From TrEMBL:
Protein name (record): EF-hand domain-containing protein
Gene3D superfamilies: EF-hand
Species whose genome carries this gene: Euphydryas editha
PANTHER family in UniProt: CALCIUM BINDING PROTEIN
UniProt keyword terms in alphabetical order: Calcium, Repeat
Amino acid sequence: MSNLNNSTNCIALQQEDEKKNKKKQSPVDDRPQVPAPSEAMLKNLRTAFGLLDRDSDGHVTPSELQFMLRNLGIEVSDELIADLIKDASKTGNGLIDENDFMQWVTKIQALQGLDVTTSGGDSEEEITRDLLAAFKVFDRDDNGYITRDELRSALEMIGEPVTDAQLNQVLALGDIDHDGRIDYEEFVKMLL
């Protein structure tokens, strides 16, 4: 009888240990894993963060995000901006630091099925797409040309106020056919 009791006690102790071990294990995380971004992607994200962080204080505020989106022609409600900031901010303080921003954008890209582990812009197709997107930021009226006023507006939008002399220099470099504006081909030649 004592052997039976010992066996029963052993089984009970094993079952109790198994329950304790299960409690100690962390719960399974069903969220999709976000791969680490490439160095080129990190560099691009740091540049983007720097453009958003207009006062260079290391944080993006809702008003800075709203300002950039409006200047890109994207109208978003203040409520949605607050939700985006809340989603991106790990501290919940209504600000996004550089690390929060990089994790947030990487997560969004991964959810969209974009491969963040690749170079982030080395293929010819990606370069062409990025150049066209950059051109469209400057070409506010979408007529295929960047005018002096559009150039000034775009540079001021990203926190780079320019003098007339500086505008003249940029136009002189980019305006190959001397028509007073920069078309897409001229824009590409100027950047590459």
